[in-house]
Amino acid sequence: MRGSKSRTGQPRSGSAFVISVVMIAVLVIAASVFFLRPSAASSGLRGLPNYTEIRGDYDAEGLKYEKQPHLGSSTAKVKVIEFADFKCPSCKKWKETYFERFQKEFVDTGKAELFFMNFAFIDRDSIMAASAGEAIAAQDNEQFWEFMSKLYDHQGDETKIWATPQFLLDFVKNNIGGIDYDRFAKDLQEHTYMLPVKEDFKTAGNYGVNGTPQFMVNGKLLKGGSYEELAAAIEAEAASAGAQ
């Protein structure tokens, strides 16, 4: 049985073959363009280093209180470290819910001194935000706490890259006063404080930190992150120090 022919007398199967070849070629080209173009995620990571790209000597032993932003009296018998990531929604919630209460109950009363240590683990822009905080703290310890509070207020989606160099430059310029902005911009762009961020991260991991926010009281890492557990640990350490 012969195949049907078109009005020109050519077999229809030949035309179908040509059309199929053309369609396949178009699909291959489209797929190549799609898979070879930079994705939105990868383009957003430009200029954001990961920890393997941050080179230099650091020491993951010891808590190095003197290197951390601090709040409260240095004579306080209880030293509290908060391990945090500026991209962490739970860290933002803790700041909004408990920070003022903690300051009134423990910092203002002289019971505890609070230290902030970076545990920037969520994504590369976590490292960038942490380095911005380090740059602020290097200029003014008090301004760091304003930076911390306001950056949480402007926190973006945890699943997206938002703490880019340009975002942080604009954020600090528009929200943080009392610092040398040109110095901050230079430190941020030249990655001046990337190594201290890596040191914080490695130190925290060395002491068992595996998420944020997490707290340490006089060198003892708390298992949970509730305010009640933190308050009880502080009171216990304060009582122990008073009895000595």
From TrEMBL:
Q: Which domain of life is it from?
A: Bacteria
Membrane-spanning ranges: 16-36
Q: Which InterPro entries match?
A: Thioredoxin-like_fold, Thioredoxin-like_sf, Thioredoxin_domain
- Alphabetized PROSITE patterns for the sequence: THIOREDOXIN_2 (PS51352)
Q: Where is the Thioredoxin domain?
A: 42-239
Keyword annotations of the record? Disulfide bond, Membrane, Oxidoreductase, Redox-active center, Signal, Transmembrane, Transmembrane helix
Spell out the PANTHER family in the cross-references: DISULFIDE BOND FORMATION PROTEIN D (PTHR13887:SF14), GLUTATHIONE S-TRANSFERASE KAPPA (PTHR13887)
Assigned protein family: Belongs to the thioredoxin family. DsbA subfamily.
Q: What is the protein's name according to its record?
A: Disulfide bond formation protein DsbB
**Source organism of the structure:** Paenibacillus helianthi
